[in-house]
Amino acid sequence: MMDFELLVDRLDATNSTNSKVKALETFFKTASASTAVWALALLSGNRPKRLVSTTLLKEWGCEKQAMPAWLMDECYAFVGDLAETLALLTPNPEIEIHPSLSILMGEYLQHLKSEHLPVKKAWIFSQWETMGPTQRWIFNKILTGGFRLGVSQKLVIKAIARVHSLPEETVTHRLLGKWNPSESFWHELIAPTMEMPPSHPYPFFLANTWEGKLPVQDFLVEWKWDGIRCMAIKRNNQVFLWSRGEEIITHQFPEIEKSLMNLPDGTVIDGELLPVQNGEVADFSILQIRLGRKKVSSKMMEENPVIFRAYDLLECNGTDLRTLPLLERKLKLEQIGWNDVSPFWSVSNEAELEQFRSRSLEHRAEGLMLKHQHSEYGVGRTKGSWWKFKVDPRSIDAVLLYAQAGHGRRANLFTDYTLAVWDGDRLLPFAKAYSGLTKEEIEEVDKFIKANTLERFGPVRTVKPELVFEIGFEGIGESKRHKSGVAVRFPRILRWRKDKPATEANTIEDLRALIR
After folding, report:
1. What SS3 class is residue 461?
2. 224 is catalytic
3. Cα(393)–Cα(316) distance, rounded to whole angstroms?
4. Minimal CA–CA distance to 496: which of 421, 439, 436, 422?
5. What is the pTM of this model?
């Protein structure tokens, strides 16, 4: 455990990317397989689920430190993080015990997964009594399910690839999907070759925001659809549908699974799941109804139809096509028999490109995708060959109605805002926004909130309705789940309308007009 604690301290002490990679390389060079694989799991987000509620941890923390609940709440509010609060309140032991990371995680799963609460509590107390500050903080972070450091999975992959002389793309590919943090998996991961199961996807290739500095004639243009990016796989006469979040969602879309079975074996397609109504792309909220379902009924499929629109062919007859030029892959895609391929075209100048972009909403698209016609299918967000050129966000002027403090470094500032529009003479909440203001503006808004609080509901404050913000969003649709009857996609603050009184903010009818 001491080697992992040292790594955590080194990563936390620097903002330099090179220094972080160097610290990771030093760790992975000497760590045992069992320690390395658990460190990889924790650093890359493949950590185990939280097995004890935060409510219980707070209660047990109060019991262990013999302190009243109100004092724990005050400490938590000041620090802003429960794991760190509990770590700071626990005194350091006379003798520290440092089990290996793999032993600690094995005991964590053993004692917390199926044992009764008294056993869980006793084990957690025993760990707190023997841990030093860094180890205690790491342990508490694991308990609360919030173990995160200022290091991306990409940097971890870079370090492992360097230490074991592997291409970064290979390590990325091997880490896709769910994997068990075992010694055997670690040895497979760093081996020269690794046998992949039929279900294993390729890493998604992602686009950057269009900067307008390249000749548009070199690119293929297509609509940027607002759906769920997916990879469809047909191998060994089995079908797998992967989301970009590395989840298999095949069972949630049985009609797509049935259609994919008609593909030739050894086929992998990059595409998008899209909701449809009356033959046209519909609102994203229809997709949300289908997500997370263990079983999808015939009625649900009939009322919420979905299609899979293909963008790219990554594998054909078991052959990896990703290094072929995009145009060649597109032509092969049209020949394999899939009946819904996203159209693409060329433009001759910027004016023509802008003309197409201005028509995006007519096609229920978010904008355009520009892909270099000779580009390979890369890994992750590689700048240069794939670009997204979205329409300008739609916006509405809304009134700040509720506010809540942020987390971590923002725990002492009110940074989470609930915005409302007018419905007659009352304000109707319709969206939450967490970004868009400068540091100075956040501090100014925070002062206003603290001086103009009308009511408190736990961590939430009702604020005097005076501040107006222009809220931008990518999409909008009807919603039965929201009180306003409207759901917006990716809301954020575009600007603070200091020039506008609350009475001049937009209305719910203005929002509904945007849907129409």
Report:
1. strand
2. yes
3. 38
4. 436
5. 0.72
